[in-house]
Amino acid sequence: MYNRRILRPAFAICVLVSQWSCTYVSNGEKASTESSSLEEEDVPKESKSINVILMIGDGMGLTQITAGWIAKRDALNLERCPVIGLSKTNSSSNLITDSAAGATAFSTGKKTYNGAIGVNPDTVAQPTILEIAEKNGIATGLVATSSITHATPASFIAHQPSRLLDEAIAADFLKTDIDVFIGGGKKFFELRTDHANLLTQLKEKGYAIANGVEEIGLVKTGKLAGFIADEQPLRFSEGRGAILTTASLKALELLDQNDKGFFLMIEGSQIDWGGHANDSQYIIDEMIDFDNAVGQVLDFAAKDGNTLVIITADHETGGYGINAADDDGTIVGGFTTDYHTATMVPVFAYGPGAEAFAGMYHNTEIFHKMLAAFSIRLPVNSAPKQVEIQ
């Protein structure tokens, strides 16, 4: 097998570029405009989808994916996706993005500063794909292996100047009609400094409040607020189990009951945490767990025939490299940092409209491509409210 030798690449991506500059801009609007986006006429008119599932492997670069493949010693479910692109991840404030700015780029189509949740560089709230879907009668959901108020899921539903405002982010959930959300962070809804009990308010809005996998599994219809931890869920190796797959399937079961389709964001949150810890095994465990969820989602999409699945990352974490591996798939890895890097990340797509995700583009384009899949056009001029910095 590998015999601790340096591995030959399993695959290569060949891109011909006539001219490219590695600069970033501080103006979010300009960054989005300068991205190599597909013009509207380039998007096939017949490629429409009523279900869109965005799966985010937080911190998942090509090396994290490769590590999962080596350790699994079998093909990854990601390999079932026929379309692959590359996403440029810089934020408006830095070449190296954080998860808040990265997810806000996905959710709003706008570059913003690191730490921003659903707002532009001037802290003005921007409509998210989840909110836009709601207004068009499309069911919506969020699933994460972090607190549901953490940077990535928060950026799809909240509008706050800082990712650190978990309680304010939790309160923003009450301002939407999201159908399903499953993750950690129950304490930000219940044990709050303002003494408000948002769980009571969620019940009044018709949500079933479920604690743990068993209770989540009992909910068969209606709205669901599912909690898998008071704050941050356990890592996979500490006994979290296949909660990501189970929660994703439950969200699909509930959202698919809507005749007008659905939007679902699923995050494998802790691939990133393994990178921050410079822990190869942590990365591998979380990567394989995420890929298992990918497999179930792709099975759903294949059976449904009208579901677009996009799988990508907000950024790479750790500057992760693989130097060798043992016969049993044990990896000898190395890291250049305990933070994020500026490297581009892959975008995988499956289902109707997947071809629009080929190529190289800014992360903001994922928002526009998802809207195109829904056949939704935004008004040219909108005036979202100002969000005051707390």
Question: Could you explain how this protein is built, in words?
Answer:
The structure is a single chain. By secondary structure, this protein is of the alpha/beta class. 31% of the residues lie in helices and 19% in strands. It has helices at 28-34, 62-72, 99-108, 129-135, 151-154, 166-173, 187-190, 198-204, 212-218, 243-255, 271-276, 280-304, 364-374; strands at residues 51-57, 83-88, 139-147, 180-184, 207-211, 223-227, 262-268, 307-312, 316-317, 321-325, 331-334, 340-341, 345-350, 359-362. It has a ten-stranded mixed sheet with strand order 5-6-4-3-7-1-8-13-2-14, with helices on both faces. β5, α9 (212-218) and β6 form a beta-alpha-beta unit. α2 crosses α12 (280-304) and α3 runs parallel beside α13.
